[in-house]
Known about the structure:
The complex is a heterotrimer. By secondary structure, chain A is α/β, with parallel strands linked by helices. Among the domains of chain A are: about 40-65 and about 90-235, 3-Layer(aba) Sandwich (Rossmann fold), CATH 3.40.50.300; about 245-270 and about 290-335, no CATH class. Helix content of chain A is about 30%, strand content about 25%. Chain A has eleven helices and twelve strands. Chain A has an eight-stranded mixed sheet, sandwiched between helices. In chain A, a hairpin with a 2-residue loop joins strand 11 and strand 12 (about 320-325). Chain A is globular. In chain B, helix 5 (about 130-140) crosses helix 7 (about 160-170). Chain B has helices at about 55-60, 85-95, 100-105, 110-120, 130-140, 145-150, 160-170, 190-205, 215-225, 240-245, 250-260, 275-285, and strands at about 5-15, 25-35, 40-45, 70-75, 75, 95, 175-180, 210-215, 225-230, 235-240, 290-295, 300. The two termini of chain B are about 35 Å apart. The relative contact order of chain C is 0.15. The two termini of chain C are about 20 Å apart. Helices cover about 75% and strands about 0% of the residues of chain C. Chain C is mainly α. Chains A and B meet through helix 7, helix 8, helix 9 and helix 10 of A and helix 7, helix 8, helix 9, helix 10 and helix 11 of B.
Amino acid sequence: MTLENNAEILKVENLRAYYQMNYFGVSREVRAVDDITVTMRKNEVYGIAGESSSGKTSFIKVLAAAIRPPLKVVSGTAKYSFSTGPIDVAHASPAEIEAVRWKHLSYIMQGSMSVLNPVRRIGRTFQDFAQRPLGLKDKAFEDRVVAHLARLKLPPDVLRAYPHELSGGMRQRVTIGLATVCHPEFIIADEPTTALDVVVQKEVLGLIRDIQKEMGASVVFVTHDMSVHANVADRVGIIYAGRLVEEGPTREMFFAPKHPYTAHLVASLPRIGDTQQRPALEGRPPNLADPPQGCRFHPRCPLAVDICKKEVPPMEVVGPDHRTACWRWKDVEPLVNVAKPAGVMA
Amino acid sequence: MTTLLDVRDVSKRFTMGGLLSHKVVEAVSDANLSLNVGTPEIFTIIGESGSGKTTLARMILGLELPTSGEISFRGKTVSHRVSRQERLDFMANVQPVFQNPFEAFNPLKRIDRYLEATAARFLKLKQRDDLDAAMDGALQKVGLSLAEVRGRYPHEMSGGQLQRAAIARALIPNPPLLVADEPVSMVDASLRMSIVNLLKSLRDDLGVSVIYITHDLATAYYISNRLIIMQRGRIVEMGDARTVLDNPEHPYSRLLKASVLSTEDAGDGKLGTDPGMVKLAGELVGKAGRLVDRPDGRMVRVY
Amino acid sequence: MFAVLRDLIRYNIEFAIGLILVAIVVIFAALSYVSPVDPTLIYVAVPDQPPSAQYWFGTNSRGQDLFWQLSAAFRNSLIFGITVAVLSRIISIAVGLASGYIGGWVDRVLMFINDIFVAVPIFPILVLFYFVLRNNLDSFTLALIMACFGWPFDARLIRSVALGLKHREFTRHAVFAGMSTRKVLLEEHLPYVMPIVFSTFMNNMLWSIGLEVTLAVLGFTNLNNPTIGTVLYWANSHSAMVVGVWWWLAIPVVLIVMTFLGLFLLAISMNEYIDPRSRLRRMGA
C-alpha cells in the first residue's frame, strides 16, 4: 500500500518530551519538547529551523526513535504511516522500531566522522548498516551499493577505502548514500552540511535534493542556517524554546513571515552586495528547565504586550498551509525588511 | 613605526610520515600582507578548509614558526623563539578570539577567571576593586556586564554571549590587533549578527584592527576593509573587500561567490554550480603563478 | 553535601557497602586513641584467652588484649597507607602534569626517571633498607621510601591525560590570558585528572599496606610497633593456628578483608561522581 503524494507520512500530536534528571542530589526537568503538533507529507522537504538549545535536537531524537534516558516522552504521539503499516515511535517496542529502522526511516547526522567507524572500510560499514534490512546476499548487495554510490558520483573503490582517506565532502556523500541505499520513505537530516565548506555544501545540498526527488522520500532537514532552508526546503517550521512558533511554505516564510522571531531570523541574514546595518536580537534563548510564562519569546520580542506574558498564544491559520503562534501576527509585517516578490501573499 | 603587522613571504611546510616515507605539505606559500597603525581596519582572510588560513593565523599569533619568511610586529621580528617576557609583551598587543566559544572556556570552571587573569597579568592590577573595574569596563564594551558574567559556567550562557565575553577578555589589555579565527561559525545564525556588529564597532569606535578569518563571504562583505582569498596555501586574490567581492576575477573567487546560498529565490533555489567553474578552479590548485596588480587596486594570481 | 551522600547511598549499593565497611574499620581504629592499655607492652593480660566479655577479641600468646592491639595496629596501618598515598600522589601529579604539558626534554628526563623506578624491584630495596637501618626504620621512613616507588605508574596515566589537555582550546586561551604554567596545570588541568588521582589513591593505600604486611610477616620491620603486619608476624611465630589460638589470626584477617573490600568499593563507586563528564551533566551542561 503506497501513499499518494501530499498524503501524510508523519503526524506528531501534542508531543512532550522532557529530560528528567535526578541523581547525586540534583533534580532537574528540562522541557525540551513542549507540546509540538506538526504533520509532514510524502515527497516533501520539511525544514526545521531553530537555535541550539531550542529543543530541535530532542525533537529529532524522538522522531528518529532514539529516545533514551534521561529523555522521556511524557505525553503525545509521533505516528508514521509507512507502507508496512503505522507505527508510533514515541511508544513502540524496540522490535517494532528495529523493523522500520534504515528500511523505512533513516538519518543523516552531523559530522560524518562520528557515523563512519574509523577502523572499518566503507564497504564493511555499508554491510553493517544496510545488508540486513535489504536482505540481500553479498554479491547482490555489493552491486546494489555500487549502483547507488554511482548516483552520488562516488566511484566503486570508495568501498575499499577507510574514512580518513576520503575528503570531508566525500565522507558526507558516503553518509548520505548510507542513509538512502535502502530507499527509505523518511529521512531525517540533522545539520548535514554545517561542518562543510561553502563549495562542498552546495554540492551536497544539491545531492540531497536530487536523491529526495528521485526516491520520492520525505526529508526532515534540521539546521539553524536559514539560507540553507531557502534553497532546500518546501516548507519550513520554526522551533523556539521547545515549541513550534511558525510553519509555512518557504517563500511565504522568507518574504511574509507572521512571527517576530521568524522575521528576525530572515532580516538578520547578511547578503553580498548589501552593507545595510543588520539588526541583532538581544537576550538569549530561554533555559528550558525554567522557561518564561506565556509566550516563550516575549522577553526578546519587539512586539510583546501584556497578554504575551501571561498566556500561551495558540496556533492560528494565517494563510494557505501557513500557521503561526503569535498574539500579534498581524503587526509583524513592518519587521520584515525585504521587498516582496510577486505572487507572495501579504 | 607606522606598520603594525608585516607578513613577508611567509611559508609553512609540514612534513608527515616517518623514516621510510616522506610527505611534504605546504600549508602556506609566500603569504604577504601588512597592516598600518594609523588606520584601524578589518582585514579578512577568506578560505575553505585546507586553504592555510588557520595556519597563517597561528603564525601571526606566534603559535607556530614559519618555515621561511618573516613576521614582524611594530618593526620587531616575532617569527623566532622569544623569551617569556617578550612573549608576554607580544600577547599584550595581539590577542586571539577562538572559533568555538564552548571549547575556549574550560567547562568545569567559571568564565570570569580568564578575565581576571588577563587583567592581573597584562594590566598588572592586584586590588580586587581595580580588577573588577577593568573587567567590567571591557565587558561593557561588548554589551555585557560583570554582574551578568560573574560566577557563571560556560554552559549557562549562549554561544553568542560566550563569544562576546571572549572578545571582552581579548580587549582587556587594550591590544591594537585582534586575530579572530572564524569567531561566528559555531554561533547560531540568529546570534551571529550581534558578534559581527560588535567587530565592526571595535574598528569604528575603539580603533582596534581585526584580522577576521572566515569562509562566509556575506559577513566578509559586510564588515571588511580589505581581504585576501586563499586557496590551498596560496593567496589568489587580494584587495578592497567590495571591489573584490562585487566582481571577483580569479576563477576560485568566482566559484566561492557562486556557491554562496542566497535567499532571493527562497522556495525555488538553484543548487547546481556550473561544473565548468568547479573544474577550472580545481585545475589551478598547486600551480604557483604570480600575483599581479590591477588598476582598481587589487592583486590577482595569474598563471 | 548531604544530599549528595544520601543519593550516593541510595542509588549506589557499592558505595553504601563500602562506606559501612570503611566506617566500621575507621571507628575501630579511632578507638585506639582512647585505649586504656598501652599496646606496646607485653604480658599485661592473661595469655591465650578466647574472646569473652572481658576480652572482646581475646588475648594472644604474648599476653596482650587483642582488641586494643588490633585497634592500634589498624590505626598505624591506615595512617601509614594514607601517608604513602598522599606523598606519592603529590609526586605523580607534579611529574605527570609537568611532563605532559611542558614536553620536550623535561618530558624525556622525567619519563626516563619514571621508567627506572618502574623497572627497579621494590621488594629487595625495602629489605636492603631494613638491613641498613634496622630499628631506625620507623613507619614514617618506610612510608617515605614506599612513596618514592609508588608514583611511576600513575604519573604516566596522568601524563597521558595532560597530553590530551594540552591541545584543547581552553589551554591556549589560558596561555593568552597570561596564566603561568603553574596556574594552568593546577587550576585548569587538575580537575580533569582527579578521577585518576582518587582511584589510584585507594589503590596505592592497598598496595602499600599490603607491602608493609608482607615485610612484617617476614620480619623485616620494627616488630614492636603494632601494625597489621606485625600482628600477623607474631601470630605466625607463636604458631597460633597450631596451638589453637585461632582468634589471633582469624579476627585480623576478617578485619583486613573488610578494610580492603571497603576501600576498593569506595574507590570504584566514587569514580562516577568525580568524573568531569558526570559533573558537567549534573551542572546542567
